[in-house]
User: What shape does this take?
Amino acid sequence: MIFSKLTILLTTTLPTTILATATPHLLLTPRSCAYTCGNDCYTTSAISAAQAEGWKLWEEWRTVGKDKYPHTYHDYEGFDFPVEGPYLEFPILADGEVFTGGEPGADRVIFNRKDEFAGVITHTGAEGDDFVACDGGDSDYGYGY
Assistant: This one.
């Protein structure tokens, strides 16, 4: 009886101990990029926060910044978003803060007027004032470019 309890204890705790000792960076890395725009990594929580702020402002008929975000995104580039428009765009910031005005940066979260997530796009790597898709997207957040 003692032997079987010891065996169970060792087989359930030893692999965890070895994993924690051998690869501590895996256990200490809370960030995972849902989308990457240029060199900027966006987690699902950062994307959700930007979309939530944009939606809140839209519902309150308020805008922020000199370009008055959120505003209609016309999709001149012809992205194949997983939800139907019309679309709104709202800045998503690389520093993790939610946009409240000032410089919007290059990246945008796109959602429709039903508050359904469409994607994340960027001016980085695009010509002129156009957008290109950010890398990433999974079953929860993506159109998978």
Observations:
- Confidence is low (pLDDT under 50) at residues 2-30, 139-145.
